[in-house]
């Protein structure tokens, strides 16, 4: 579930940069054996800010490609660090590296449930958030929602809030649809879409039928309404770019899309789209910065995490890609952007807790059955 | 000069010595020649397959206790078997379309074109572009008000809006696998002795009879090879139906992909994968028994004149 | 009415004229060969008769009916291909029955006729084998049977024997003749191999560079070659060079280095003029050898030169001598006597009425050049 932007994909240039960065890091590690001793410290060794003697390279895995590209230069210039980024499309790509014993990755943008997994398996460094000045910038909403603590220790710093809203055509609709029921309204037959994603689609159906999307009690009803919905749909989109094109080409007027894609569709493609959280609620989750054990440059990674949570740098996440950073950036935004991104406080947002194995596999079965029906 | 030639002959001696060493040890020689390819096969094919097999017998998480439930769940579920059936149907449709279109194309390249190399190059050219990008190109062509519809409108014809439908999936598959099928079709057709065609006509067979009783039987191996090369990747596809298909175009490859990427049920995905592999291998054996030349069993080569 | 009447047949491939205004007839029951070197256009003629090539100009009539424009499968001719073109995916019986099947002959009858044809070509019991299991000679027979079983008006052969070794080829020649007689079919046979053509044909059509050189029986062509090309191509010939010193309606005086010899006008090609350099051709069997010691050379009324025997080989009842002559280099003589030994001095002679005289071209072997405008026959005296 990579955060695609218009020019998505790891560009060759970036790949080479990444490779070169890794090479440089290795070289630096060899040459600068004792210099500064940054490599031997762990983040919890930092008791005063700013940390001293950070190493000169940083390898991150961040799937906010466009923001990462901007950050490579911005952070690199400010702290004289050679930054490289590996884009990825699925969290299991970095997770399998942690499982195999990490030696390269300093910093990852990890989705909540993968953070939980990593904490459980002791793959992450604890983070001294109390000494990090930018920690205070993180909004309470996201601090409360994300899971990043265990036994009182903090293992991650929220980076972005990921909302799964209902995106709609704001010329077609006079006002924002107030119910997921719009996706079951045969008035819009053939102009609706769903996301080809078992969890997202089943949770929308759960919300629509008034169930708990994390632990629903009537799976059959979910399957039933999803099958009912099929004839009304244009398609299930399977790829972010494709999903966005559906709205940009005005093939559909309502359906689930990410916030970033909605932003891009509106401001880069000029499509008449907006997003909303219907009264039944909208799912959201968060991406967090983590410092995996085995990171060659943990202190630089800590510095980067703090830097990224500074308001003006966090604002770039919205400016470049349209995602909502974990930091309150309303002061940094233009009126238009602020209007687009500031959600009413009364929106009913449901945190996308990690599903139990049972629910997840039932959702998957339901989704397969719906498509095969 | 003398030094250089001495060095040259020294290297020559060395090579001779090495050659002699291997010549006198035929087993070692076999190992050196056949070893690397077998090693690659074992490392990148047999071992992963074995790992998949092992995983498929575990419960929900890798390393969990042993179970048969992944297989029983799959094989007793009407839903999954329906998906397999739909996958089989669409794969057969694609194979049939490619058989006709690919053969016609290969035939016209062989028989009626002088610039065969150029044409073959054009056929293979799309392989230089990423699969996904080619699918996006088709989205552009097929979507409402896309290239196809605009062109139709230009000629006063009604738009068809094919995207997100079964025909769109068939078009995408045909486009993607056609080159794979054309090459064996082409190879078998160029190997066909044109005298046999003339002999058939000379003996009173018209073009259609000649095609069915000489051309087609003589190129059967290439045809079956091409169709196998089409059928197998289609059966396992998940990108094309996801991007071009509508709400009714689920294929088993998409289900497997979901187990690994979003349902996090690797053992179940592995079990489906194993069952599908067995089915495909069975079909493959069946096809080769009908004379496919995939394993080089050219039962009937050209008679020596 | 001829079975096959070909007239003005021309085929151009781009700028290349492969076949140039060829006329000939084939009579019912005849065995006619088209003979010529490779590139002479003979295969193209055959392919036009079969229907695989469309003529640029000209007509082809089979049994009085124009067949140009008809596809091959509608022509009552069958071809035996150079590489035989047996269907490798079919059995021998299926190969032979292929044509009958196209005609809608029922299976039982097909089977029966195939078997009869296999007997005819002496391959009884081979019906269930595949072509790959047969020897080269056996495959030839199957190819022949496959053509004959359809009882076509005309069977075409495109050098089918060329891949066989000499002994097998000679055997197949006699088989061909036997089968042709037994089936009473008309054969049109294309080859570059004059030995085959001379052995089997009733009549020969000699082609060179797309044009007809001569049409006639084996004897016509051998005894009375219409051109230096035919003389050279059909059988062995000795060629000596000379010059026409005088020419009138009755005779020419030719100086071939042994004085002026009078040669009958009928032995001289029409385009020869006084003062021309000419080739004087004579067949080895027309050349006599005499003991040099006992013979006097009379250089005024016969070609004669002394020489030394180089080699001798037996040719059945005759002996073939190569003699190194003083006047003309090596000359071959085919004679009854076997009295001469290698190194012996001999006198070589032949009579002026046995020669054929052609204007000398610049090239060594005159296979280029135009067809000579000369009516067939009658220029030279018969034996």
UniProtKB/TrEMBL annotation, chain A:
<keyword id="KW-0813">Transport</keyword>
<dbReference type="InterPro" id="IPR001188">
    <property type="entry name" value="Sperm_putr-bd"/>
</dbReference>
<protein>
    <submittedName>
        <fullName>Spermidine/putrescine transport system substrate-binding protein</fullName>
    </submittedName>
</protein>
<keyword id="KW-0574">Periplasm</keyword>
<dbReference type="GO" id="GO:0015846">
    <property type="term" value="P:polyamine transport"/>
</dbReference>
<dbReference type="InterPro" id="IPR006059">
    <property type="entry name" value="SBP"/>
</dbReference>
<dbReference type="InterPro" id="IPR006311">
    <property type="entry name" value="TAT_signal"/>
</dbReference>
<keyword id="KW-0732">Signal</keyword>
<dbReference type="Pfam" id="PF13416">
    <property type="entry name" value="SBP_bac_8"/>
</dbReference>
<dbReference type="GO" id="GO:0042597">
    <property type="term" value="C:periplasmic space"/>
</dbReference>
<dbReference type="GO" id="GO:0019808">
    <property type="term" value="F:polyamine binding"/>
</dbReference>
UniProtKB/TrEMBL annotation, chain B:
<dbReference type="GO" id="GO:0005886">
    <property type="term" value="C:plasma membrane"/>
</dbReference>
<keyword id="KW-0472">Membrane</keyword>
<comment type="similarity">
    <text>Belongs to the binding-protein-dependent transport system permease family. CysTW subfamily.</text>
</comment>
<dbReference type="GO" id="GO:0055085">
    <property type="term" value="P:transmembrane transport"/>
</dbReference>
<keyword id="KW-0812">Transmembrane</keyword>
<protein>
    <submittedName>
        <fullName>Spermidine/putrescine transport system permease protein</fullName>
    </submittedName>
</protein>
<feature type="transmembrane region" description="Helical">
    <location>
        <begin position="31"/>
        <end position="57"/>
    </location>
</feature>
<feature type="transmembrane region" description="Helical">
    <location>
        <begin position="159"/>
        <end position="178"/>
    </location>
</feature>
<keyword id="KW-1003">Cell membrane</keyword>
<keyword id="KW-0813">Transport</keyword>
<keyword id="KW-1133">Transmembrane helix</keyword>
<feature type="domain" description="ABC transmembrane type-1">
    <location>
        <begin position="84"/>
        <end position="287"/>
    </location>
</feature>
<feature type="transmembrane region" description="Helical">
    <location>
        <begin position="264"/>
        <end position="288"/>
    </location>
</feature>
<dbReference type="Pfam" id="PF00528">
    <property type="entry name" value="BPD_transp_1"/>
</dbReference>
<feature type="transmembrane region" description="Helical">
    <location>
        <begin position="223"/>
        <end position="244"/>
    </location>
</feature>
UniProtKB/TrEMBL annotation, chain C:
<comment type="function">
    <text>Part of the ABC transporter complex WtpABC involved in molybdate/tungstate import. Responsible for energy coupling to the transport system.</text>
</comment>
<keyword id="KW-0500">Molybdenum</keyword>
<dbReference type="Pfam" id="PF00005">
    <property type="entry name" value="ABC_tran"/>
</dbReference>
<feature type="region of interest" description="Disordered">
    <location>
        <begin position="357"/>
        <end position="383"/>
    </location>
</feature>
<dbReference type="InterPro" id="IPR013611">
    <property type="entry name" value="Transp-assoc_OB_typ2"/>
</dbReference>
<dbReference type="InterPro" id="IPR050093">
    <property type="entry name" value="ABC_SmlMolc_Importer"/>
</dbReference>
<comment type="subunit">
    <text>The complex is composed of two ATP-binding proteins (WtpC), two transmembrane proteins (WtpB) and a solute-binding protein (WtpA).</text>
</comment>
<keyword id="KW-0547">Nucleotide-binding</keyword>
<comment type="similarity">
    <text>Belongs to the ABC transporter superfamily. Sulfate/tungstate importer (TC 3.A.1.6) family.</text>
</comment>
<protein>
    <recommendedName>
        <fullName>Molybdate/tungstate import ATP-binding protein WtpC</fullName>
        <ecNumber>7.3.2.6</ecNumber>
    </recommendedName>
</protein>
<dbReference type="InterPro" id="IPR003439">
    <property type="entry name" value="ABC_transporter-like_ATP-bd"/>
</dbReference>
<feature type="compositionally biased region" description="Basic and acidic residues">
    <location>
        <begin position="357"/>
        <end position="377"/>
    </location>
</feature>
<feature type="domain" description="ABC transporter">
    <location>
        <begin position="4"/>
        <end position="234"/>
    </location>
</feature>
<dbReference type="GO" id="GO:0016887">
    <property type="term" value="F:ATP hydrolysis activity"/>
</dbReference>
<dbReference type="GO" id="GO:1901238">
    <property type="term" value="F:ABC-type tungstate transporter activity"/>
</dbReference>
């Amino acid at each position: 579930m990579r955060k695609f932007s218009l020019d998505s994909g790891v560009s060759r240039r970036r790949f080479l940069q990444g490779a070169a960065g890794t090479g440089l890091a290795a070289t630096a590690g060899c040459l600068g054996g004792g210099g500064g001793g940054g490599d031997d410290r762990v983040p919890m060794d930092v008791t005063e800010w700013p940390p001293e003697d950070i190493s000169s390279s940083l390898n991150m895995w961040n799937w906010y490609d466009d923001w990462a590209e901007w950050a490579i230069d911005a952070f690199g210039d400010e702290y004289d660090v050679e930054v490289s980024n590996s884009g990825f499309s699925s969290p299991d790509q970095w997770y399998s590296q942690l499982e195999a014993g990490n030696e390269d990755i300093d910093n990852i943008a990890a989705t909540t449930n993968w953070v939980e997994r990593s904490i459980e398996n002791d793959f992450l460094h604890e983070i001294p958030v109390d000494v990090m000045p930018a920690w205070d910038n993180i909004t309470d909403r996201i601090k409360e929602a994300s899971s990043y603590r265990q036994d009182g220790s903090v293992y991650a710093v929220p980076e972005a809030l990921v909302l799964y809203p209902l995106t709609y055509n704001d010329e077609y609709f006079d006002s924002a649809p107030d119910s997921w029921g719009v996706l079951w309204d045969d008035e819009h037959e053939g102009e609706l879409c769903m996301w080809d994603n078992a969890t997202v689609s089943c949770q929308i159906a759960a919300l629509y039928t008034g169930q708990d999307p994390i632990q629903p009690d009537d799976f059959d009803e979910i399957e039933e309404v999803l099958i009912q919905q099929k004839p009304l749909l244009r398609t299930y989109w399977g790829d972010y770019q494709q999903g966005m094109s559906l709205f940009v080409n005005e093939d559909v007027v309502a359906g689930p899309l990410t916030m970033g894609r909605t932003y891009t569709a509106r401001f880069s493609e000029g499509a008449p789209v907006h997003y909303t959280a219907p009264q039944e609620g909208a799912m959201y989750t968060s991406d967090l910065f983590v410092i995996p054990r085995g990171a060659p440059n943990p202190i630089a990674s800590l510095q980067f995490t703090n830097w990224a949570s500074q308001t003006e740098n966090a604002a770039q996440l919205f400016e470049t890609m349209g995602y909502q950073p974990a930091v309150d950036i309303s002061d940094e935004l233009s009126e238009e952007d602020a209007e687009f991104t500031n959600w009413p406080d009364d929106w009913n947002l449901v945190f996308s807790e990690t599903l139990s194995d049972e629910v997840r596999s039932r959702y998957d079965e339901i989704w397969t059955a719906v498509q095969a029906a | 000069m003398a030094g250089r030639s001495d060095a040259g002959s020294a290297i020559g001696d060395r090579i001779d010595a090495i050659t002699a060493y291997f010549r006198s040890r035929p087993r070692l020689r076999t190992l050196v020649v056949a070893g690397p390819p077998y090693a690659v096969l074992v490392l990148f094919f047999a071992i992963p397959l074995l790992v998949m097999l092992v995983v498929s017998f575990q419960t929900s998480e890798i390393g969990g206790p042993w179970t048969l439930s992944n297989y029983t769940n799959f094989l007793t579920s009407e839903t999954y078997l329906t998906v397999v059936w739909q996958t089989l149907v669409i794969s057969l449709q694609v194979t049939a379309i490619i058989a006709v279109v690919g053969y016609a194309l290969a035939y016209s390249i062989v028989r009626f074109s002088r610039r065969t190399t150029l044409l073959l190059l054009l056929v293979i050219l799309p392989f230089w572009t990423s699969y996904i990008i080619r699918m996006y190109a088709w989205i552009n062509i097929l979507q409402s008000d896309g290239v196809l519809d605009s062109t139709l409108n230009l000629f006063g014809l009604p738009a068809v809006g094919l995207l997100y439908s079964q025909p769109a999936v068939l078009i995408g598959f045909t486009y993607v696998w056609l080159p794979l099928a054309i090459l064996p079709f082409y190879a078998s057709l160029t190997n066909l002795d044109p005298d046999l065609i003339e002999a058939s006509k000379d003996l009173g067979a018209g073009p259609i009879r000649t095609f069915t009783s000489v051309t087609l039987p003589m190129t059967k191996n290439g045809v079956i090879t091409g169709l196998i090369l089409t059928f197998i990747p289609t059966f396992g596809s998940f990108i094309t139906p996801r991007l071009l298909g509508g709400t009714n175009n689920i294929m088993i490859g998409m289900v497997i992909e979901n187990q690994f990427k979003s349902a996090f049920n690797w053992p179940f995905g592995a079990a489906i994968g194993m069952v599908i592999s067995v089915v495909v291998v069975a079909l493959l054996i069946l096809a080769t028994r009908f004379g496919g030349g995939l394993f080089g069993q050219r039962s009937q080569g050209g008679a020596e004149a | 009415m001829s079975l096959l009447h070909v007239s003005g047949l021309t085929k151009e491939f781009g700028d290349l004229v492969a076949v140039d205004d060829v006329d000939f007839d084939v009579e019912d029951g005849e065995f006619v060969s088209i003979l010529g070197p490779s590139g002479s256009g003979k295969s193209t003629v055959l392919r036009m008769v079969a229907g695989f090539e469309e003529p640029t100009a000209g007509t082809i009539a089979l049994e009085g009916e124009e067949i140009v424009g008809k596809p091959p499968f509608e022509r009552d001719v069958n071809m035996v291909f150079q590489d035989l073109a047996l269907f490798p995916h079919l059995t021998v019986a299926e190969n032979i029955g292929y044509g009958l099947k196209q005609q809608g002959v029922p299976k039982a009858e097909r089977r029966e006729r195939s078997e009869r044809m296999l007997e005819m070509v002496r391959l009884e019991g081979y019906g269930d084998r595949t072509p790959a299991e047969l020897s080269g000679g056996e495959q030839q027979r199957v190819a022949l049977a496959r053509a004959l079983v359809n009882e076509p008006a005309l069977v075409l052969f495109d050098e089918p024997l060329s891949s066989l070794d000499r002994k097998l080829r000679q055997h197949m020649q006699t088989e061909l003749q036997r089968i042709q007689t037994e089936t009473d079919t008309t054969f049109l046979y294309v080859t570059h191999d004059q030995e085959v053509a001379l052995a089997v044909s009733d009549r020969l059509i000699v082609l060179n560079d797309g044009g007809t050189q001569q049409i006639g029986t084996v004897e016509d062509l051998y005894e009375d070659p219409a051109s230096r090309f035919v003389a050279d191509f059909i059988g062995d010939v000795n060629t000596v060079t000379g010059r026409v010193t005088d020419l009138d309606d009755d005779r020419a005086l030719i100086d071939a280095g042994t004085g002026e010899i009078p040669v009958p006008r009928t032995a001289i090609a029409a385009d020869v003029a006084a003062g021309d350099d000419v080739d004087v051709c004579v067949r080895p069997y027309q050349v006599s050898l005499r003991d040099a010691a006992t013979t006097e050379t009379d250089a005024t009324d016969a070609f004669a030169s002394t020489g030394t025997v180089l080699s001798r080989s037996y040719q059945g009842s005759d002996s073939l001598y190569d003699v190194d002559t003083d006047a003309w280099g090596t000359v071959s003589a085919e004679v009854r006597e076997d009295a001469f030994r290698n190194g012996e001095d001999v006198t070589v002679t032949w009579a002026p009425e046995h020669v054929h005289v052609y204007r000398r071209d610049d090239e060594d072997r005159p296979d280029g050049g135009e067809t000579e405008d000369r009516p067939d026959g009658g220029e030279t005296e018969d034996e």
